[in-house]
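Rotation project, supervised by the postdoc (A.L.). Task for the rotation student: set up a whole-complex structure prediction and record inputs and outputs verbatim in this book. Inputs entered:
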Amino acid sequence: MSNQDRRQLVAQAAIGVTLCFGAYMLLADGPRTRLQTARAEVQGLQAQVQGAESMRDRIPAITKSLEAVERESAQVNQMGKAARDERGLFAALMALAAKHQVRLDELNPTRMGPGGAKETTAKTTGQADVAVGYSMVAVGAYENIAGFLAAVSTELGYVAVRTVRLAPEPNDTARLVRATIETEHYSFDVSAPQPIAEGH
Amino acid sequence: VCTAAHQGAGSAQAAKAARLALAEAAGFALDANPHSLSWLTSDTRGTEDGSASIHTLGIADTEDTAKALASWIKQAGLEPSALIPDEVPGIAAAVDAALNLADGDNITVVLHIGEHRSALAAASKGRLRFIRQIAIGTESLVQAWTRELNIDGRTVVLDHTGAAEMLVRVGIPERRQVVDPERGITGDALLPLVQPILQRCVVDIKQSLRFGLEEKERENVTVFGIGPGSNVPALMRLVADQSAMNLGASPAKPGRASAGMIDTWLEGRQISVNLLPRGLQSQLIDRRVRRGLWVGVAATLTLIVADAAMTRFELGSQERAAADLRHRMESTAPASALMQKLTSEQSALSSARQRVSAKLDSLADWDAVMVMLARCTPESVKLVQVNFLFDNGRPVCRLSGHAPIGGLADASATLQRFMDAMSATGIVRGCRLGAAQRSEIGGTAVQNFEMTVSLVQLPAPAQSPDAMTSAEQAAQEMSP
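Outputs recorded:
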């Protein structure tokens, strides 16, 4: 085989390979890619449909569970209502003091974080939680102070009584106690995260 | 050239040995001239000492001869694809027949009588003993009979066709046999012409037997005739008698036995030898490669088209399946949405529970502690300050007070009872007495003390919304 023959053969082989490659790309490659995508889609849809169809039979149970979850979420929401409504909380504290015959000499909001009196954890957790702190000075009989503390702990939702300092009321003949109380009131966000809109 | 090499050396060594023998026999450089080697046969059984051979056929000719032959063929308007010497079909046929007919220890000899050349092969026990060429064929006898015949003083000349027809019809005649009554040709006139040829043939055969076989083996040799010459009447009988061999019945098929070299080649085993000129061989290879290339391209294109068609077909069915599944999915959308909502709300609630737990896990029931203090504090002990706080996340109670010294009760014993009473309650983990200092209050000697009471960490008290509601109701009642 001469050099010219070899060159011709190589050129023809290159043409043949190009022809085959071109034909493959033109005729087969596109449909193959689409077929792979369609196969994957069918596979995914099959799994989804299987799950969804089995779910259809469980709608009553799901509804029941959802109602229970919503009930519990509403409870959590309700428990945090005081922390979200400072005026209401203030009024509630005053009402409890009156109910337990305790005199509130001072009632001040306190700093709970670097942001000020009110701290939300939305930035870090993505949830709109609220925390409010109060410092109060209550004067009353020892047992009334105890009752007031019990009421604050149990009747104002999510409350943490952080410190209590008790001392006898000076120059008092009625054996009153002066209590300095620091409380924290919380509200926890139970709203489900919103799905991210497509295209963003 | 037919060469035999020991099987243990391998086929590559056998080919190498055959090439050396061919180069020696050819007398010219093989590389510059067309030549070809091909496996002929391998012994299935070895000799007494166990050695078996590979037999290789080698052919060669000069480039000029091959070119001339190819040129003639081209001038006749044909395309040469292979040049094969006419001995090759006869050799292959003789070898195959000898090996097939060899029976037991007896030596079987097959004589393939061709038109121009003959081949003699001997075999026994699956082993090719020898293969020889004899440069005599039926054409040698025909040519001899075309010489001038002296018939009773007359000169008679047979043409080639007449001589050939006479050979096939009469064969080797008897001395007094009348062969052609019209022209008065008898065996006396014909035999002297073919006698030297037959003698040379018999001598070649005898020498081949003598050199190729042991003396004892030569005592019982059966010869079979094949090829076009084997049908010449009395020829094989004459050869067998003169060579002291038994004549076997002709084993070949009728067509093959009576046919010429071309039929023998086409019907028999085709050996891949070729003496085409090197340039022509290169062109042939080039043409085959190109043809193979384009056939391959065509096959590949066909496969691509078939693949594309099948892929499109499957794609259609997959897309239909996907559409059907999407439709089914749509019918289950409410259930899916409900489930998604449940999952989402459960997740949010669970997250909220975790945060509640993180914030409110370290609580203390301070009012209960106040009740406990009221119950456990002795009458004589006066508490001047009580602090409830968390120390490293644990609830503690720090007390400051004083107990009277003297009188009925000792201050230390009083404080010890106080601590014991507190420790006996379920909410106290331990009591530790701190600094103690003696002083006077209102003229009475007292012992000031500081005490730290470690409390049991309690779970967060249940806080129900109902309680909150009541608190709210209370707030509403208070509001103007």
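Student's summary: The CA atoms of residues 76 and 112 of chain B lie 30 Å apart.
Supervisor addendum: Confidence is low (pLDDT under 50) at residues 461-480 of chain B.
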